[in-house]
Amino acid sequence: xxxxKSYSALLASLPPEFQDSAIEYRQLKKTIKKLVDELGSLxxxxxxxxxxxxxxVETHAxxxxxxxASGSTSDPTSPSNTSTQLSSELSQVVSxxxxxxxxxxxxxxxxxxxxxxxxxxxxxxxxxxxxxxFVSESQSxxxxxxxxxxxxxxxxGALTKRRNSSTSxxxxxxxxxxxxxxxxEPVFEEQGEAGLDLSEPEQLSSVPESDSREIVISLKAxxxxxxxxxxxxxxxxxxxxxxxxxxxxxxxxxxxTISQHAKPPSSHHHxxxxxxxxxxxxxxxxxxxxEIFTMYMELEIFESSAERDRGDRSxxxxxxxxxxxxQQIGARGMKLSKDNxxxxxxxxxxxxxxxxxxxxxxxxxxxxxxxxxxxxKRTGLPSPSSAALVAVAPVLNVHFTSLPHTLVQAMAEIxxxxxxxxxxxxxxxxxxxxxxxxxxxxxxxxxxxxxxKLQKRGKANCPVCRAExxxxxxxxxxxxxxxxYMVDWFPREVKEKKNVDGKExxxxxxxxxxxxxxxxxx
Amino acid sequence: MSLPKRIIKETERLVNDPAPGISAVPHDDNLRYFDxxxxxxxxxxxxxxxxxxxxxxxxxxxMSPPKVRFLTKIYHPNIDKLGRICLDILKEKWSPALQxxxxxxxxxxxxxxxxxxxxxxxxxxxxxKEDEKGAQNVSREWTRQYAS
Lengths: 522, 148
Ligand SMILES: [Zn+2]
Ligand SMILES: [Zn+2]
Description:
By secondary structure, chain A is mainly alpha-helical.
């Protein structure tokens, strides 16, 4: 199973704006290969690098004292052997290495190796042909100039071919080296002498044994790798930012459209009747949208509020639920006018967008994680800290990781409240719309019918807070504003409630007259 | 007479989203009559037992409280031989804003914290007051014998 394949298959299912900004997994894989070659040409295979990068100071000291018995000579006639042999030799002259990133204003990560070398040991190891073999193995350079000094402008990673006998590993390393920007750190660890010395390999023998030299190697292929990666991450955050603002725009737009469709037909809503709404509109659209939103909320497509599985759903589960939602609306055979159908489709599209966004983020994060793991595994170089990546790649910021949740919230805050929900206007006692609404002195709201029942039974305490507010309530406690609002937004529920209450009152009166329902004979 | 909306809604929720350790199922032929099962709370002498109760919603409900009774024998200071429960919200503290669910949760809580100072079964309460450990052992034994 190739991850690269399933990754590109998933991307292919997403809209182009996401595809274009996704991490180019295959390209990055190729770059890792180039980096492995680049490091290999320096004799730095993963094992060597690993041991150098994890060298303790103690080991460093000991290696300086070890006699150069093994590996002091190499056989130039067996080139297949050269690389590994060089590697072991290299680990003897190179005492310690550090992998680091310098980040300039353009926010690119410049990876480099800082290596401390024991020059005298180097002398012992690289006396003859092995270094020649090494250099001839190395990749050809963009800049074949013969003698580029350390303090000259060296193109990053440019490797100079030098075929004369003085060519050495150290020389090759120097060609990779870029001088430290002044004033940050001394190039030499122990001696304060000018780093310029390094540009003259001939002088190496004069360096005392106890000294170690420091070389900084800029890794060209590695820089390409991180440029590719961070560019993709930056592109992703731009795509997400665009998606977010487009989403919010269409959400607001849609909420205006739905408000117009679902607006209550009653005149209460329009203080000054305009010719347009003199004709009473049917309440069909209001109830259609109420049903759509109720179904939508009950399905909890993206986030569950249930005890057993609270939190984000998997994208598979969300997709399933979204499909079910669309299907249910279709199955109800709802009479959606053309305008309403268009609005409903836009509503669905917004949900699909959130779903795609989550798929994209999950895939992108997974690809980044995998490629960094591969990078470390193939090269032996440790992964940069996530902090270093966040600095150049805003996509990893909290704002973007929580974007799907933000959009789900926005939907719940902007779109769904357009249609008031019955639960918020229910009488706690009869569980119907609290019509006519009576507000007690304590602030609690009940329907007039339930309140009358409480009073008839002499119950003085509010059923919710137990304050003694029930018996004082009278006609003035009816909330007229709320009454009109209920008539506007819950016309069917209000009608049903009046109906039920009417029958109940009738029955009560019959009973008071001594005639129970059972024995009424007409 | 059709069932009030309030009872329909409560039943729906009891069946679809039951509270942990509590089940309440209405009879097919009388939707005001429920078969209830409460599991004995962890750490109480009733742990491991499943207690059957009956719950009835009178015509006046929710103006009047539901009538609840243990069917399973239980050794508890606030529950008598007939299964009647001494619980204030089932009597003078009833409020029509309370529900079947809240009532059953309160009964479950009563199993966790018996109150011998407000007894219904005076002999059990006396036992609980004078020798709590011994009384709890009897409760455990009854749970094992009648509720498992
Ligand atoms: Zn009411
Ligand atoms: Zn109140």
